[in-house]
Structures are given as C-alpha cells and as structure tokens.
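Supplementary Methods S3. Input chains for the assembly prediction are listed below.
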Amino acid sequence: MGLLRDLLFTFRAFFETFGALSLFLLRLAVYTPRALVRRFPLIVAQVHNTGALSLVIIMICGFFVGMVLGLQGYDTLSRFDSEDILGAATALALLKELGPVITALLFAGRAGTALASEIGLMKATDQLSAMEMMAVDPLRRVVVPRFVGGVVAMPFLAAIFSTIGIAGAFLVGVGLMDVDSGTFWAQMRNNVDPEDVWEGVFKSFVFGIAASVLAVFEGYNCVPTAEGVGRATTRTVVLTAIAVLVLDYIITAALL
Amino acid sequence: MSDQRDDNIVKIRGLCFARGQRRIFDNLTIDIQRGHVTAIMGPSGTGKTTLLRLITGQLLPDRGEILVNGYHVHRSSRAELYEMRRNIGMLFQNGALLTDYSVFENVAFPLREHTNLPDRLIRHVVLTKLHAVGLRGAAQLMPSELSGGMARRVALARAIVMDPDLLIYDEPFAGLDPISMGVVVRLIRQMNDALGISSIVVSHDVDEITAVADRSYLLSDGRVVASGRPGELAKDGSAIVRQFMHGMADGPVPFHYPAPDYSAQLLGRDQD
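Predicted structure tokens for the full assembly:
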C-alpha cells in the first residue's frame, strides 16, 4: 500500500509540476509580443548573455564532435567502401540530430544554469519582491527577456555548432584520411536537402523553448535559500536533458 | 477603492492568518495614522514581516480586511494593487538593491519603469534623492561596493523616488553600527516630516523606535498586547510589555524552547 501511495504521490507531483510549467509557458507566450516592443534592449542583452557568451563552448565542442564524426564515420563507411559519402553522412548527422541536441545540452549546462541561478538568487535576495513592491512585474521585467533571449539564441548556436562540426569532419576526413575534397562537398550537396536543414532549425527552436522555459521556471519557483538555488540549478540541467531527448524522439518520429 | 482622505492611511480589521497549523495573527486590528511614524514591535517570530507582506498584498489573509490608502488590498485586481504600490515605498531588511545596476540606476529604476521622463530630469530627481540620504557621491558605485548602512540608505532613496504617501521599513536598524543606526533613525523622522508622508517601521530595537515613533504597537501571540506612545509602553505594567521593553531574558516569552525535563533527558530517561 505504501509503495502504491508513493507512486500515486509521485505521479500527482509530476502532473502538478507539468501543469504549472505549461501555465508558466503560456503566460510567457502572452507577455512576449509586448516585451519585444517595450523591452527590446533587455532582450538583446539577454541574447548576448545566453548566446554570445556560450559561443566559445559551442564552437570548441562542435569542432571536436565534428572531428570524432569524421574519424568514426570514415572507419565505419570504409568497411562498406563508402567513405566517399563521409561529407553527406556527417552533415546529415550534425544538421538533423547532433547539432540541435548537443547544443541544447550544452546550452542547459552553460546558459540554463546561469539563468536559473541568477533568477533564484534575485528571489533569495528579495530583488524580485522589491520589484513587486515598486509595481514592476518581475515576470515581465526579468523572466520574459531571459526566456526570449534563450529562444532566439538557440537556433543560431545550433547552426554554428553544425557548421564548425562539418569543418572539423572535413579537416579529419580530407586532411587525415585522404577523402577527396571535391567528393566530400559534392556528396554533401547532393544528399542534404533544405528539409534536412529546416528539420534541424525547427528542432533547435523547440529545444530553445524547452531549455529556456525550464531554466527560468526553476529559478523563479525555487526555494529562496542557498540550497534551494543549488537544487534549482541542478534540476534545470537534469530536466532539460530529459526534455530535449524526449522531444527529439517525438519530433523525429513525427517528421519521418 | 473607497475615500482616500481618511485619517488612517492603513486600517487592519479582524485579520486572521495562519501558516499551516501555526496561527500567526488572530483577529488583529491596527490603525496607522496619516502623517505619523508608527512602529510595529514584537519579539522575533511574531510575524512582523508577515504583517508587512499582508499590508502590501504580497500575502492573502485567511480572514479580515486591510485598507491601504483607500484600497481594499485583498479585493483589488492586480492592476489596482500595482496602482496602490506606486504610492508605497518599501525598504527591505537587506536593502534588496538590484545587484546588476549601479546606485544611480537602482534609484532611477522606478522612474524608468513608470514614467517617460527625459534622462536629464531623471538624473536631476535621482541626484536630489541621493543627496537627501547623503549618498550623491556614491551614485556610480555598485551595490557590492556599499556597506550595509549605505545600501539601506540607497534603498531609502529608491523608496522615496516616486514621492510615495506611505513608507514602510522592515527592520531598518538590523545589523547596523551605531553611526549608521543614528543616520537611519534621523532619516526616518526627516523623510516623514519633510515629505509629509506616513511611515510604518517594523523593528525590535526598542531604543531606536522610542526615538523615532509617534505611536507603537507591540505584537505577541498574533495580537496587539499594547499600544500607545513609546514612552507609555515603557511604563506599561503587563509582564510581556515589561519583558520586551526592558529586554529581560525570561518571562512570558520563555528563554527555553519547550523541551522535556532537563535531568531526565541528560540521564537518558526520555529514551526509555
């Protein structure tokens, strides 16, 4: 009986949190159009915070993921005498899957944690209450610009990740493994359709919404103590990782 | 909204509030007079800060009514609540300055959010308010560069920048050195009289409150146990008032948290 009760309690807590998150996202969506007009400079600042400041980690990781793809791709494809399609294979893998997914996971680790802890600390130090008392809605002033900034930054970060990744794969495939340079690019051009690119863009946009809303939700609703902020930061990374991988499967299955 | 020109800027009637099983306020009734500095005192944990959050509409009471400047706080819409708060300045215990902004931008924040004043005028107003709290020279400092007393003075400048009718201070003296404390005491009185506003000061620093308040309420166990001029409270005969006003360690508010018998616990008999 105890186990059943615990299970029911866990399910109930999950659906309550999911409901609260959905309502929170709905409120952000309603506030976003006005914020785009009224708080545009704040949004630009947040695109810089979440996007530009994540560039280094995105570029380094993209480069190495691309290089590994070049090595592993070459090794696998050469067993079937198909190393000529290395360019197409790495580009498809990066554009459709690895680019959006790994970027979202890195985004959660770099920008998501920063957003959650920043908002959580503002709550813990009464800065959000002070805004409320100055008749300024912290949801519109603090949360919406950060959410929109993350959503805008993510597709660009994913595009940069994939581009650098392809460059890394090219360097390894052509530079080290002697795949023909012309073949590398020609196979890519022949086999990668605009729909493949759009699939990646769509995914990164959805992941951007998921990663950003989870980060700001966790920060805004954290227990306003040092431990509470720490827990919110950890939950941001864990929940974003799960959400991104589940959403990735759903979108891939729907688009195939 | 009802008539704004009441003698009392805040009226609390029959307020009941509980957190879980713990009753914080039980049928609390308080009037805060316009133009006066009113002190709300009480031992730690009596719900003084909770009372401020109820007055400003950040918490909802279980029963009772709070009127602030004519607004029925808990029957007001969100827009009305924000309208009401524009006429209230609140000083948080730790200042609650926005850590990403300089002192100048912190004080300018309400003006930038609620008005379309040109930058030159905002600068003028902000410098005037900073001058009033003696920190015009610190305008370009960041909050992390300020001492506790300075941060509270900046927060005070920010609280008065919209020229409110009511200023609320939550533990304004906590953790301040005697000089900063003296400055804050003087500023509370000065702001109240010079700006013609009303002030609520929540504190348990008896000496400072006595120096600044026109009227005091002493809370204990969720209700008002004494009220009047601070001098009158000092002469009050009841045990709880005497214990609080004279800082006695034991009395109606016990020194010891409820515990089993001391010797029985030391001998381990409570574990049998």
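Residues 3 and 9 of chain A are 10 Å apart (CA to CA). The mean pLDDT of chain A is 93.
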